[in-house]
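Entry 14. Ran structure prediction on the chain below.
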Amino acid sequence: MTEKLHAAGFVIFKETLNSVAYLLLHNTKGHWDLPKGLVDDGEDLLEAAKREAKEEAGQTNLAIIEGFHETIHYTYKEKGKEYKKTVDFFLTEGHDAVILSDEHDEAEWFSYEEALKKLKFKETRSLLEKAEAFLLQK
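Output, structure tokens:
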């Protein structure tokens, strides 16, 4: 039987001299991803995303960009069990130094092109494409 999970997170960016850089975290499972995590009972999606940004990357001074809210869905197997995960993402500008959690061993700000190459999953790459397009329209 497939277990359903709901998570929330952020596409965190910062403006550089001529472009935008995106924060990716390298997890101990061996791949780069965006900060995200499961929604706790009684928590709304934005609260969960803020908590995860703080827990996973030490980001607390978040300038949330209104009008961007994307949802991705994917299925994966872990320890013989199948999971169907829904993740809601918001967009924010990060201003804090990165402080990693124990779940991650590295964090780095990447250009859009570099971030697309680092992200393992097509759903997350598609999400980053939407975030980049959204920022270019502003």
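The mean pLDDT is 95. Will compare against last week's run tomorrow.
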